[in-house]
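User: I'm designing a mutation panel for tRNA(Ile)-lysidine synthase and want to avoid disrupting the core. Could you give me a predicted structure to guide residue selection? Please restate the sequence first so the numbering is unambiguous.

Assistant: Good idea. Sequence first, for numbering, then the predicted structure tokens:
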Amino acid sequence: MSGPPAAVAAVRVAVRHCLRDLPPGPVLVACSGGADSLALAAATAFEARTAGRPAGLVTVDHGLHPDSAAVADRVVALGHALGLDPVRAVRVAVGRTGGLEAAARTARYAALESVAADVGAVAVLLAHTLDDQAETVLLGLARGSGTRSLAGMAAARGLLHRPLLGVARETVRQACADEDLPVWEDPANADDRFLRVRVRRDVLPLLESALGPGVAAALARTARAARDDADALDALAAQADPFADGSAAVEDLLAAPAALRRRWLRSAALAVGCSASALTAGHVDALEALLLDWRGQGPVHLPGGAEGARACGRLVLTPHPDR
């Protein structure tokens, strides 16, 4: 008897490896109805059933387009048809903090973690592919935010797991076609107001055309290498962090390698209430200038009303007065 088509098999194998690394207990698939998450849902239903593991589905309705409720209903029906249980649809309110994409992501992840806690899931599976990882690396390059930004998305972080980071989008879409899954095309994926859409539509194809095939895979390998380096440096920085009560001796900061010093500065800024999404490399540059280019300048203003200032041989970070 012949096995499944190659694309279907590739997605199933990726999910199988992910499930093997998880502790016992139910898993949830986050499914929008798009090709990537539908292929993931179908593969998870098959692999979980084979392994005797409970598996469910959750779809998040962001309410950002007129048909969102109807799409959520279709995804719920598909989840039941695949044999997943439980199947949930959650409507969220999307704010505007950090931009529409970031606000939608924040609302979505909060909803996913809430449903996971409610059903006792040990993991929520997300359908980001190798191509999504490549786009994330290019966006990190454009921001110039260092190795952590170039590290892309983690394969696993807390409850969130991404089994398909090593699988090309083309393969995932072929798996949907092979299984005759009814794919919904999100209008946002063609909206060039979003930077990621322009990277996907214009930048990556241009790189592939100019440099040859394999650019997305190379960028994904870069992400893995950058993540290893960033994790090691973060661990070293945490072990020797000189900040205490929001301040550190200037001489200690100047004596450290730049890679550690800049991590300490970022960590200290986060500790006094700066939002991670709002804190940029430029803010860290400004704090570092108080050490490397000291001319008696005034305080550095940070997101959320925090400040950094140099006084009496120390770099002092203070939160907003209301905090």
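For picking mutation sites, this is relevant: The beta strands are 27-30, 55-61, 87-91, 123-125, 156-157, 160-161, 247-249, 300-301, 307-311, 314-318. The mean pLDDT is 92.
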